[in-house]
Amino acid sequence: MGRTYFVEEAIGQYLSDLSTKLKPYVTGLLIGQCSPQRDYIIRAVRTPPKEEQKEDNISPSKLASIDEEWITTHASQVSRMLPGGLLVLGVFIIATPEMSKDSQNALRKLIFSVEKSLTKRRLWKPSEEEVSDRAALQICSATKKVVCRTYDVQDPKSSAKPADWKYQCALSASWLALDCTVNVNIHIPLLATSPNHDLEKYTKNGLNRWSKQIENSVFLINGQVKDDDIELLEGQKKLRGNTQSSTQFSDVKVLTQLSQGSSHRSTATVQVCSASINLKGAVKCRAYIHNNKPKVKEAIQALKRDIINTLSDRCEILFEDLIINEGPHKKNFEREYHVLPQRLFVPVAGSSVMLSDYKFGDEAAGEIQERFVEMLDQSVQAEDIHIAEEINTVNICPVTDNMDNTRQKQLTKATLLLKLQQNMGVVIAAAVAVFASIFSFNYFSD
Fold it and tell me: Could you tell me the pLDDT band of residue 203, with boundaries at 50, 70 and 90?
């Protein structure tokens, strides 16, 4: 028996509008949530057109010309804007009847490419019992016929299985939300034996170790430790009526274990380090879960992944920003600030689920609005942008002047410090001077 996808009713109109506006085909992403009992699709998002396609709304004439890299990059960007519990669950294609035969092959290829791209970025691994089917939705632009199939992305040889596609009114109008603020204190040493400090690589390795701590943490939901297999709302009053958007929040505290216990002994290693990266502070995290008798373990898993994703994504965004904006020949390092982006949330009409994004301090509301239109095909009012975290800054002390250019370049790379300032989750990245012991970063040389 195939899977059943319950789909937000408004998506049907959205896909219908796309079929009349864009020819001969259009692709896009399906966003939602898997559960053991049923799957939910709450958003469909078209692939943003390239610059040359924006003026005339015309796609390339053949499916063979689909830009796979463009679509997978879009999926990676969109995944950053999803709070815990939401995933890119599939791909859709709306095409003319002449292209229908080739559409399914194109969809299969895109399903696996998108999943591979998203998996590469993740610092967590799916559980064994987790649903690994992804939806491939094919719509004929002429007849409006909808065909939904699934592929098991854990099996490269997987063949298509039929799936049901059922629209439902106000599907996500009363989903449940879990909120928490997590204190972070991560110390990442940079080995002296490493000739070039690849800060992004070191940071990701450090975050990978930290993510395992989060996986092993204890989660208190509204002050209580709950058994994994009981219903999340057991003992609570459930909000009735789902015709209007309403959210039932649960406050969560995360208790990180100081040690892994005797069953997880590890061998200590002494290594000579020339510098270190410190991430210290607090981050705002949120996960959403369907309201069809969700289990505690489903909710906690969604929140764990949001905790891991939000810190990893911010670091990734910072490094991308540095590559774009920091000139390779820059020599003057007098008092700067490298600020990791703040988290923000944006409501969705008719839904209790809010989408997420990140902004640097100098980004205007207009830039965020443009990003939502481009990435999620959604118009956002400036007053609907809710900043979840406040800004704080840390000085960048200058590097000493009496050194040659080669040494200067080495220190430039080695002294970019990521530091989460502890003020409602703002993340600050700062580079500090050699032997600047008042900060968390120290660079020692022979």
Answer: confident
pLDDT digits over 14-38, tens only? 999 999 887 789 999 999 999 887 8
What is the Cα 125 distance to its own chain's centre? 14
DSSP secondary structure letters along 234-259: TTSPPPP--SS---EEEEEEEE--SS
Q: Which two tokens stand for residue 444?
A: 């020692």
pTM of the model: 0.83
Mean pLDDT of the chain: 79
**Reduced 3-state DSSP string for the chain:** CCCEEEEEHHHHHHHHHHHHHCECEEEEEEEEEECCCCEEEEEEEECCCCHHHHCCCECCCCHHHCCHHHHHHHHHHHHHCCCECCEEEEEEEEECHHHHHHHHHHHHHHHHHHHHHHHHHCCCCCCCCCCCEEEEEEEECCCCCEEEEEEECCCCCCCCEECEEEEECCCCCCCEEEEEEEEEEEEEEEECCCCCCCHHHHHHHHHHHHHHHHHCCEEEECCECCCCCCECCCCCCCCCCCCCCCCEEEEEEEECCCCCCHHHCCCCCCCCEEEEEEEEEEEEEEEEECCCCCEHHHHHHHHHHHHHHHHHHHHHHHHHHHHHHCCCCCCCCCCCCEECCEEEEEECCCCCCEEEEEECCCCCHHHHHHHHHHHHCCCCCHHHCEECCCCCCCCCCCCCCCCCHHHHHHHHHHCCCEEECCCCCCEEECCCCCCCCCCCCCCCCC
| 226 token code pair | 């709950």
